[in-house]
């Protein structure tokens, strides 16, 4: 992970935490009010209730969803031709951040031109909305994405200069970055233009770390995860191999940690590697004690079957009884669990992003059409299209601000 990406990730969470827009707070407040009323009815009114200790964790028991199965070869081929079939949207939808800037169409210059790009197979829907609404403002601009739809193919076409841009529903592969830099001498510009989804299979669901349901662990830091999973330990911690080193006592103190992960290369694996194992521009490496799976599908079952397990998976793959652990970037916290609210508000540190990738020579201006298109996507109107599409989570204002800053590089 390069330093600018690290700074962007930190900045977007700082801004997101300032955004107090409620998503589920009314229902939560109602539940708390009911609980408080029940407690007050049974308590001695002459004795005030003692305050709770700080940082106590609330646990909810929730049925695991049905098992997600891979696409068939026929479905995969159809997705490459026309895009993947959209899932049923979440019943709850996030609010649009009112602090996002409004987009003002340019009147001082006339924008025109034909541009073509590539896209992951889960993105034609929202990309089509962006194109349609942008063209309404600029009728002489024609933008399209061409099949086959696959982020990896689009990235290679960008290197070959056969496309002007590529929408990718994950971070670019290291090999794509190497090929691009070898040809042009600099990295591609990767601008976050939307959040991922919460738990939609294949549509960039959030990532969660889990343990066995009997495990008393209540939270974990990036440094601790790095000390468990990596050989490089760029976050500075000593290797962690037992549950006692994470503060667990009693029967757990001397028990070994069985770490499960996804075999490189994989989009989930690359995301965790960049977000957790990499630091200050140094790329993290996995240690040889990790038990790797080729794909994400069976990961939750390891957590349910292995009492001493820890692992990570997408929220769409939680088909077994595991315990999801709140995660914090530092020991000072805050620690967030992968709830729908924390993902939608971008406070959860393992929420994912969709990127618009293009070739921009550092220090030189972008084509004005592409620059305006990016500014539109990062505006209130552009993120309204994400909300209208109802699969992905719109960016918060701090995320959009950090993304716009990348245009000046």
TrEMBL record:
Keywords assigned: Signal
Origin: domain of life: Bacteria
InterPro entries documented for this protein: PBP_domain, Phosphate_ABC_transporter
Signal peptide location: 1-40
Region described as Disordered: 66-99
Occurrences of domain PBP (ranges): 112-381
Stated name of the protein: Phosphate ABC transporter substrate-binding protein, PhoT family
Species this protein is from: Massilia cavernae
């Amino acid at each position: 992970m390069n330093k600018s990406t690290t700074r962007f990730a930190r900045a977007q969470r700082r801004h997101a935490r300032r955004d107090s827009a409620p998503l589920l707070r009314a229902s939560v407040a109602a539940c708390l009010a009911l609980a408080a009323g029940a407690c007050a009815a049974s308590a001695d009114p002459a004795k005030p209730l003692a305050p709770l200790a700080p940082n106590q964790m609330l646990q909810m028991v929730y049925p695991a969803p049905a098992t997600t199965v891979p696409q068939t070869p026929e479905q995969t081929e159809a997705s490459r031709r026309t895009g993947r079939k959209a899932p049923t949207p979440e019943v709850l939808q996030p609010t649009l951040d009112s602090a996002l800037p409004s987009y003002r169409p340019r009147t001082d210059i006339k924008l025109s031109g034909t541009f073509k790009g590539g896209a992951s197979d889960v993105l034609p829907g929202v990309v089509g909305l962006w194109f349609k609404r942008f063209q309404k403002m600029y009728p002489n601009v024609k933008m399209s994405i061409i099949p086959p739809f696959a982020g990896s193919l689009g990235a290679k076409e960008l290197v070959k200069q056969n496309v002007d841009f590529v929408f990718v529903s994950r971070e670019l592969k290291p090999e794509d970055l190497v090929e691009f830099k070898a040809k042009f001498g600099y990295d591609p510009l990767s601008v976050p233009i939307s959040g991922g989804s919460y738990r939609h299979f294949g549509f960039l669901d959030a990532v969660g770390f889990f343990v066995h349901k009997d495990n008393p662990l209540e939270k974990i830091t990036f440094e601790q995860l790095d000390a468990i999973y990596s050989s490089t330990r760029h976050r500075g911690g000593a290797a962690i191999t037992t549950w006692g080193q994470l503060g667990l006592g009693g029967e757990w103190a001397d028990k070994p940690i069985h770490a499960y992960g996804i075999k490189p290369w994989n989009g989930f694996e690359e995301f965790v590697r960049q977000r957790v194992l990499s630091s200050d521009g140094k790329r993290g490496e996995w240690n040889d004690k990790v038990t790797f799976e080729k794909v994400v599908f069976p990961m939750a079952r390891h957590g349910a079957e292995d009492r001493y397990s820890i692992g990570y998976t997408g929220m769409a793959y939680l088909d077994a009884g595991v315990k999801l652990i709140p995660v914090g970037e530092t020991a000072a916290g805050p620690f967030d669990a992968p709830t729908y609210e924390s993902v939608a508000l971008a406070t959860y540190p393992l929420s994912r992003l969709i990127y618009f990738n293009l070739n921009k020579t550092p220090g030189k201006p972008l084509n004005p059409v592409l620059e305006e298109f990016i500014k539109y996507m990062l505006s209130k109107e552009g993120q309204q299209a994400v909300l209208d599409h109802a699969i992905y989570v719109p960016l918060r204002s701090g995320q959009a601000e950090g993304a716009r800053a990348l245009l000046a590089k």
